[in-house]
Specification:
Layout (H helix, E strand, L loop, with lengths): L3 E2 L3 H12 L6 H8 L4 E7 L6 E9 L3 E9 L8 H15 L4 E7 L3 H9 L3 E11 L5 E10 L13
The structure holds coenzyme A.
Length: about 160
């Protein structure tokens, strides 16, 4: 299952709803992203069922990539799917000669932080109260980045 470009915005929105519940983006937001050249929508599709299992949204700037979102079907986690999407993003950024990948993650999202650390991201800082919470409170954002000048240092490549 190789990462590929995804244009089926309904499948993206449905997967995001399964993966992230009330935090998921709307169909309208996916439609806007899909029609904006700045964003790349990449996914992994089940070879047998053609179901979308994972996706990543990446914005491409003149110097950096930014990982806007990554999500995996709850029934297909811990199988390296997010890792494949991250490796593909890093390889693409290096092929373009870009400098860094940037991202923000909720302070309480330990699974995502572990994923990013495994792929060579380091913490750059913290933005207080950046994210709204369903409870009505706010949650800090952790800012992370990974340089693109070196090949996957310290990161494991998922099995092919
Ligand atoms: C975070 C998320 C994308 C990880 O997807 P995944 O396909 O399960 O990740 P991978 O299988 O590639 O995991 C690679 C490594 O990341 C770390 N990791 C992933 N999920 C983890 C978890 N729940 N707890 C601890 N470490 C975790 C582990 O080091 C893992 O390697 P291992 O399975 O050999 O221990 C997935 O849990 C998800 O969709 N969460 C909801 C959406 C979300 O929070 N997105 C991030 C927004 S910033």
């Amino acid at each position: 299952m190789t990462p590929e470009s995804v244009s089926d915005v309904e499948a993206l929105a449905a997967l995001d709803a399964r993966a992230r519940g009330p935090d998921a983006w709307s169909l309208a937001r996916f439609e806007a992203l899909a029609s904006d050249q700045e964003y790349q929508l990449t996914g992994i599709v089940d070879n047998n069922t053609q179901a979308l299992l994972a996706f990543a949204v990446v914005s491409v700037g003149p110097f950096d990539l930014e990982l806007e979102m990554i999500a995996v079907d709850p029934n297909h986690r811990r199988r390296g799917l997010a890792g494949r999407l991250i490796v593909a993003m890093i390889e693409q950024g290096e092929a373009r000669g870009l400098e860094r990948v940037l991202l923000e993650v909720r302070a309480g999202n330990g699974a995502a932080q572990a994923l990013y650390e495994r792929h060579g991201f380091e913490v750059d800082g913290r933005r207080a109260g950046y994210y709204p919470q369903a409870s009505g409170g706010r949650e800090d954002a952790i800012l992370m980045s990974r340089p693109l000048t070196h090949q996957e240092q310290g990161a494991e490549r998922p099995a092919q």
